[in-house]
Specification:
The complex is a heterotrimer of chains A (561), B (304) and C (128).
Chain A (H helix, E strand, L loop, with lengths): L1 H33 L9 H25 L16 H30 L4 H24 L3 H25 L18 H23 L3 H20 L26 E17 L6 E14 L5 E14 L4 E3 L17 H8 L14 E9 H4 L6 E22 L5 E4 L2 E11 L2 E11 L21 E7 L4 E10 L3 E3 L2 E10 L2 E3 L4 E2 L5 H5 L2 E23 L17
Antiparallel strand pairs in A: 1-2, 2-5, 3-4, 3-6, 6-16, 7-8, 8-9, 9-13, 10-11, 10-16, 11-13, 11-14, 12-13, 14-15
Helix pairs in contact in A: 1-2, 1-3, 2-3, 2-4, 3-4, 5-6, 6-7
Chain B lengths: L1 E12 L2 E12 L3 E5 L6 H8 L7 E6 L2 E2 L5 H4 L2 E5 L10 H8 L8 H11 L12 H13 L5 E5 L7 H12 L9 E5 L3 H5 L4 E6 L2 E7 H7 L1 E6 L13 E8 L2 E6 L4 H10 L4 E6 L2 H20 L1
Parallel strand pairs in B: 3-8, 3-9, 6-7, 7-8
Antiparallel strand pairs in B: 1-2, 1-4, 4-5, 9-10, 11-13, 11-14, 12-13
Chain C lengths: L13 H15 L11 H8 L3 H14 L2 E4 L3 E4 L7 H7 L1 H13 L4 H18 L1
Antiparallel strand pairs in C: 1-2
Classes of the chains: A alpha+beta (561), B alpha/beta (304), C mainly alpha (128).
């Protein structure tokens, strides 16, 4: 044991400054953002400090420390000294633990404890941080020289980035990440970092081994690394869109909202500033985009239905049938739909507002686009429109309730919501929120689910509730920042703009929001889980494709209120 | 006990054999000079002994332990200084000594201080800033200070100026002085330096051990002979022990005798009556040259 | 510093050369009888010879009676051996024989040998 400590002391003296720098960075990066004393999340600076620099320092330090007393070659100083290989390896691993694992673990455990994270998440974090280190360290131990490694690492990384950019440009449908933008909206950014890093490391090692012609060892590396890379690759944002995985212990899924009614409200609208990709040639063409208002009714309690995709087809008067391509990129925030306020209110224990039938909230449903070149064949024609709408049902529940004032915060299960500025703009309330979430690639349920990143915007609903006055306001607009991953901590900033005041059980209150109202208000955050998808087909007889608008700069039809 | 034992030890690098079926025993307490031309396999042999390389055949034992099973405790009794060895470049000499000291129970601080003064090594300069000679002295210092039973030095004198070489040897000679037998193995081209020191000599060429003898015995049997007389010629059949026979002119024959003895002396006198036969001793350096040339020529003949 | 010098020549065993140098130093008076003889270690370091060899030198000189080991004091140079001139002459017998054989081999005659002996005698005496 004393030999181990003796070597550890030597290594600390050798690399003391770099080690201290590494500890400082990981503390500053994580705690700085957790305590919200860094500039607002998002942006290149955040990414550099939070992710890239510590990774670089860690790589340099791990390689340097392992290769200071290499186990390969016949020139190492320790080989003819009374130092056993076991003691040496233990000392190196101890160094890695002390310099990397322990500080980051201490910080993360502190954050996790103050965020009331479940034990599983803590275990996941422990395994992640130590596991990564051990792999790095052992790999560095097998590589001969540091300078070569660094040069090859840089070269391999550069080559990989260039190659990936080229591939992403040539084959955009592959949905490969765009290498220069590394805040990947997809699966866990941590996985992304791991994947990128181990991919680069694998390349370095293989290149190095080939350069030094140690074919046996190269093969050994390949055998070990190929499954690792494959695993990282398949769990990585190569497929950005996946169906969200079901929660273990998710609320039971009753029959889907087949009873939901979707109504199409003619006339159709047209928007001239659309773009369409020609499937035949792949060219992007100017197009007319046609939409129609639609409304949903009879959404069951505790449920929200959300648009997934729309596919429309028209059978013209002369029997000609035309099917348009499925439109998958729809953004229809049902949280804002007053139709669903009924469902929301009931879930919150409030009397739903009395909605007049004629005041059905309708939303623009984007049907299809026709390229300008081809639109002449379609303009003004009549037929029967049939729209197949694929809907996703979300089962929501009240997650958190906070006082709607600056500084309020709530912690549970590894998540923390804190309220920033609350203000009134044009008679409507605007609230800034900060959402912290512990993520771990090993824990795939609960607060730390990796797939929360996709369609995260739809997973949370926000309601301003003033029980004293019996009024509420739904979110009308929202802004999300990209998730800023600082190792195990994900930070998301939101700005919610709330809509009109509604009286529970009554109708809209035609007065603007004011500070007095906000005094007694609580911010209710709802959280939704997917309950599955279903389709509805609606037909509209006597549908006419409208003429194009003459005004060249017509404003786009509002798609959501 | 033998300090070193090799039994049919072999090592090849790819298809190139560096050490071939080498069998050798070096008793402890001796100063053994390992000589041979470049590429003869000296460095490879020493690395095999210390488990820095694995043999492709055969076994070796060092201080009674199998090379492949050397543990930390055996290395407490072995010192190793080699030209291409890594040293912790960032450490100063003082830090290096401070690092090594706790590893050896037999560390002699007084000896270390004395040697450091004798070597004139600055304690506070990092090793990477030391000259080559100082580097070697630092390496030697960190190996002598714990009084190893076996000192292995691989080409220690390369590139050292005569003053440093002398200090080096002085340092080596600081070691013995108590009851424990101390064995030295030094591989070198620079034979003159070890000429006086060597008890035994081993000559390695082409990975094989050609000669293993005491220095005295080697020096005893090698002589250069010059015969000056009128119209002399070497005898038809080459007498035993005659090497490198040359006849620069009709009156002079020069040869190297590898098996000199009083009987050989008489034989020479008898062969060339009336001529002057002058016999001179040879340095190890000169003997080594003869052996090297002989090996090269016979290797050439084998190839042809 | 050693109280005697050795001029090393190639080809002869080191131990023999050192032994001869010691005896010569005693004969010339450089090494006085009763004076302290350097330790093995000092011998080894000053002459840059193997300690084994130095040890062999001291051992053989002690066995021959040239050096004496006094417990507590160390090794000292022995006084010239007592004994009859005949005994002492007998000690030199082998050397003398070798000298004569060698001289005859080289073709020197008796007078030349004797002259050479006288020359060396005077030279050594002169040093003393």
């Amino acid at each position: 044991m004393s030999a181990v400590l003796h070597i550890l002391r030597k290594d600390l003296r050798h690399m003391g400054i770099l080690a201290a720098l590494s500890v400082a960075f990981s503390l500053v990066a994580t705690l700085g953002w957790y305590w919200d004393i860094m500039p607002s999340a998002g942006g290149f600076l955040v990414f550099m400090i939070g992710q890239v620099i510590p990774v670089i320092i860690q790589f340099i330090l791990v390689v340097a420390i392992m290769q200071a007393d290499p186990t390969v070659g016949d020139r190492a100083f320790w080989r003819t000294r009374p130092i056993s290989p076991g003691a040496l390896l233990s000392a190196k691993l101890l160094f890695l633990l002390v310099v990397f694992a322990v500080p980051s673990l201490a910080v993360n455990l502190y954050i996790a404890a103050s965020m009331d994270a479940p034990i599983r998440v803590l275990m996941g974090m422990v395994i992640e941080s130590t596991g990564m280190l051990l792999v790095e360290g052992l790999v560095a131990a097998l590589v001969g020289s540091m300078t070569q490694s660094l040069i090859q690492a840089a070269a391999a990384l550069l080559a990989g980035v260039v190659a990936a950019t080229a591939v992403a440009t040539i084959f955009p449908d592959l949905h490969l990440f765009t290498p220069w933008r590394l805040d990947i909206p997809g699966h866990a950014p941590r996985l992304a970092a791991v994947g990128l890093y181990s991919g680069a490391a694998a390349l370095i090692l293989i290149a190095h081994q080939f350069a030094t012609r140690r074919t046996g060892r190269t093969l050994a590396f390949l055998i070990v690394l190929v499954p690792v890379v494959l695993f990282a690759g398949t769990n990585w944002p190569v497929t950005i869109t996946t169906a969200p995985t079901q929660l273990a212990g998710a609320p039971s899924k009753p029959a889907l909202s087949e009873g939901v009614q979707i109504m199409l409200i003619p006339p159709a609208q047209v928007w001239s500033n659309g773009l369409e990709r020609d499937p035949a040639t792949g060219r992007i063409l100017k197009a007319q985009t046609y939409s129609i208002n639609a409304a949903a009714r009879s959404v069951p309690e505790g449920r929200i239905v959300q648009l997934d995709s729309v596919s429309a087809g028209v059978v013209f008067e002369n029997g000609e049938r035309h099917d348009f391509s499925t439109n998958g990129s729809v953004f229809w925030h049902f949280w804002t739909n007053l139709e669903q306020a009924t469902s929301l209110c009931r879930a919150l224990g409030l009397a739903p507002p009395a909605l007049e039938n004629e005041k059905l909230q309708a939303h623009g449903l984007r049907l299809f686009s026709i390229a300008n070149e081809k639109s002449k064949a379609f303009l003004g024609r009549r037929g029967t429109l049939s729209v197949t709408i694929k809907l996703e049902e979300l089962a929501f529940h009240e997650d958190v309730s906070l006082p709607a004032r600056s500084g309020a915060s709530s912690v549970h299960g590894g998540q923390k919501w804190s309220v920033g500025k609350v203000s009134i703009v044009d008679g409507h309330a605007v609230a800034d929120l900060r959402h912290l979430r512990l993520s771990s690639m090993l824990i795939t349920d609960g607060a730390a689910r990796p797939d929360y990143y996709w369609s995260e915007a739809f997973r949370h609903g926000f309601v301003l509730l003033n029980r004293k006055r019996g009024e509420f306001a739904l979110s009308a607009d929202r802004w999300n920042s990209a998730d800023t991953p600082i190792w195990t901590l994900d930070i998301n900033m939101k700005r919610i703009k709330f809509g009109d005041r509604w009286a529970t059980g009554g109708s809209m209150v035609k007065a603007p929001m004011d500070d007095a109202w906000l005094e007694d208000a609580e911010l209710v955050i709802l959280h939704a889980e997917s309950a599955g998808t279903f389709s509805k087909t609606v037909t509209l007889e006597n549908f006419q494709i409208p003429q194009a608008e003459d005004a060249p700069d017509s404003t786009p039809a509002p798609f959501w209120q | 006990m033998n300090a070193i034992e090799c039994d049919n030890l072999s090592r090849s690098f790819g298809r190139v054999p560096a050490v071939r079926e080498l069998t050798l025993a070096i008793p402890e307490g001796r100063f053994f000079a390992l000589l041979g031309p470049n590429g003869a396999g000296k460095t490879t042999l020493l690395k095999l002994l210390l488990n820095l390389l694995r043999p492709t055949g055969g076994t070796s034992r060092i201080l009674g332990h199998e090379s492949s099973r050397l543990t930390a405790s055996e290395f407490r009794r072995i010192g190793y200084v080699a030209d291409g060895q890594d040293l912790p470049e960032w450490m100063t000499v003082a830090q290096l000594m401070e690092f090594c000291r706790p590893l050896y129970p037999t560390w002699d601080g007084a000896l270390a201080t004395r040697l450091q003064a004798m070597f004139d090594l600055p304690g506070d300069r990092p090793i990477k800033k030391l000259s080559r000679g100082m580097r070697m002295k630092a390496a030697l210092l960190s190996s002598l200070s714990y009084r190893p039973d076996l000192m292995v030095l691989d080409e220690p004198f390369g590139g050292l100026d005569p003053l440093v070489r002398d200090e080096f040897i002085q340092g080596l000679l600081e070691l013995p002085g108590d009851d424990r037998p101390r064995t030295f193995i030094v591989s070198s081209h620079d034979i003159d330096e070890v000429e006086r020191l060597a008890d035994d000599v081993g000559f390695l060429a082409g990975g094989r051990l050609l000669v293993h003898e005491s220095a005295d015995s080697l020096r005893g049997r090698f002589r250069t002979v010059e015969v000056v007389g009128s119209a002399i010629a070497p005898p038809a059949g080459r007498p035993a022990g005659w090497l490198e026979v040359k006849q620069p002119s009709g009156n002079v024959i020069q040869l190297v005798h590898g098996a000199f003895s009083p009987a050989a002396q008489s034989e020479l006198t008898a062969l060339f009556p009336g001529s002057t036969v002058s016999v001179h001793a040879m340095t190890l350096s000169e003997i080594f040259l003869v052996l090297a040339r002989g090996h090269r020529d016979s290797a050439g003949k084998e190839a042809a | 510093m050693l109280p005697f010098t050795v001029n090393f020549r190639p080809g002869e065993p080191v131990y023999e050369q050192v032994t001869y140098a010691v005896k010569k130093a005693i004969a010339t008076g450089q090494l006085a009888a009763g004076s302290r003889f350097p330790a093995v270690r000092t011998l080894s370091q000053e002459l840059r010879i193997n300690p084994n060899t130095a040890h062999k030198v001291v051992t053989s000189l002690t066995a021959e009676g040239v050096l004496l080991v006094h417990p507590g004091i160390g090794t000292v140079v022995a006084p010239p051996t007592a004994g009859s001139a005949a005994d002492r002459a007998a000690l030199l017998n082998d050397e003398l024989e070798r000298l004569v054989v060698e001289a005859r081999r080289l073709g020197l005659d008796e007078d030349k040998v004797l002259a050479a002996v006288r020359g060396h005698w005077r030279k050594l005496k002169g040093i003393q």
